[in-house]
């Protein structure tokens, strides 16, 4: 599968605000993971906050039609709001003990619910760098499938 992104595929301003402020329980997160695996999709958990420009930029990229179509077919994404680091941060420990901050933080789980890749995106305004890391992310999502993403400046 080939996906081509060119410079016209950059997210437009203002970037989306995908985080709701809801408190998420560990049970709800585990249920999301279980449901996603039953659908034979890759679970992706993104911790962020609407005050974070990088988290909003990442969501803008995820909503690009070509990226959104790919992810809807192959993965489910759960956005978890950390507020000002006063909510939901205990859930970090499900994936990596010792994390206290740093968003947006993306956890990609394998088909056995094991976390095998963690990203912290800090790329506002640096589309090439973000897209390079998204290439890695997409390859991890479809590690058993052929998938190539191109960025044309």
Task: Give a verbal description of the structure.
This protein has 153 residues and is α/β, with parallel strands linked by helices. The chain contains 4 helices and 6 strands, in the order βαβααβββαβ. It has helices at residues 26-38, 53-62, 65-74, 127-141; strands spanning 2-6, 42-48, 75-81, 105-109, 115-120, 148-152. The strands form 2 sheets. Strands 3-2-4-5 form a 4-stranded mixed β-sheet. It has a two-stranded parallel sheet with strand order 1-6. A hairpin with a 5-residue loop joins strand 4 and strand 5.
Question: What's the SSE blueprint?
Answer:
Blueprint: E1 2-6, H1 26-38, E2 42-48, H2 53-62, H3 65-74, E3 75-81, E4 105-109, E5 115-120, H4 127-141, E6 148-152
Parallel strand pairs: 1-6, 2-3
Antiparallel strand pairs: 2-4, 4-5
Summed up:
By secondary structure, the chain is an alpha/beta fold. The protein has helices spanning 26-38, 53-62, 65-74, 127-141, and strands at residues 2-6, 42-48, 75-81, 105-109, 115-120, 148-152.
For the biggest sheet, the summary is: 4 strands, mixed
Helix and strand run: EHEHHEEEHE
Structural class: alpha/beta
- Care to count the β-strands? 6
Radius of gyration: 15 Å
What keyword list fits this structure?
153 residues, alpha/beta, 4-stranded mixed sheet, two-stranded parallel sheet, disordered C terminus
